[in-house]
Amino acid sequence: MDVFNVIDCDGKKIRDKEVIDYIQQRLETDASFAPSLRSSVGVMPTEEHTSIEFTGTDRPGLFSEVCAVLADLHCNVVNAEIWTHNDRAAAVVHVTDHSTGCAIKDPKRLSTIKELLFNVLRGYDDFRKAKTSLSPPGIMNRERRLHQIMFDDRDYERVEKAVGRVEDKSSRPQVTVLNIEKDYTVITMRSKDRPKLLFDIVCTLTDMQYVVFHGMVNTGRTEAYQEFYIRHVDGLPISSEAERERVIQCLEAAIERRASEGLELELCTEDRVGLLSDITRIFRENSLSIKRAEISTIGGKVKDTFYVTDVTGNPVDPKIIDSIRRQIGHTKLQVKHNTILAPKPPKETTTGFFLGNFFKARTFQTFKLIRSYS
């Protein structure tokens, strides 16, 4: 039995019956569980759009170069999600032909798109090969797919930060893996709370072939505490130090991939061919680095969200942002939030985690997952 106490994105109780019915319908149907596509990265046309997936070494201006190539190839980006983590970049991009507004299906044209994108992603002295190839058909949530792509790309392996980058190690998630019972491994996690945190962690545990048997999640005003009793699909708990270290690395990556880093900019305007290429070019010319982005187009209007830093990963000069907003339009590009400069919450002291004794139940909104097997 799984019990979830949930709220909407504004922190309020969900009362809309249509939303409740939709959640129930999705949970009760097998359609919400798509087959795994872990081993594939590439280009796949559907009736409405062509889906492009890629990974490569992150660098300033990378997404701008990708958008410029797509614009030159007469591809219009209608939806996209871009993540960067540990100097790796991954994206799922949906494009249409700018003249027809439909998916691109010509094999020769698809081959050209893959080849040119590969040349951009390959970069200079890339020690890990970029990936662009055909994907098999299937239905999958973009965020779910991004977790699989980055996991396959081994983004959880730590790399040294560039000179000049200020890294706040205190903001790193805390992950503990212990075998306190012979039948289970207990994983405890403490991190800054954010939307979809539980989703990200469960996706990674699933990709690593672990099954959750018992769990509890509590969220406070700023922090989340999570604990899971897990076993591998073969029925065994974690049995080696190397496996334990790998689980810690992968869960840290799962928490960090979607963590909002930098200044949040929101673009709202009428869609047009080449818009995203022009916007990202302006960012690149002003030495901004895109750390994460969500691109969406509905009814001819775009609503794009970018998380940006300077090229060294540090906060952007406000004068540069003012200059960019003048070029694009103050009403079109809004500054939403600066996560780098946001005040740090007071440190909460917690020395141990284990089901009931590390949660501060009276001061936290509770989000429980309890699974029992006879």
Automatic annotation (TrEMBL):
The protein's role, per its UniProt record: Binds amino acids.
Domain spans labelled ACT: 51-135, 264-343
Claim: Cytoplasm is one of the keywords in the record: no
Organism expressing this protein natively: Citrus clementina
InterPro entries: ACR1-12, ACT-like_dom_sf, ACT_dom
Swiss-Prot/TrEMBL keywords: Repeat
CDD domains, sorted: ACT_ACR_2, ACT_ACR_3, ACT_ACR_4
Name of the protein this chain belongs to: ACT domain-containing protein ACR
GO terms, molecular function: amino acid binding
Residues passing through the membrane, by range: none
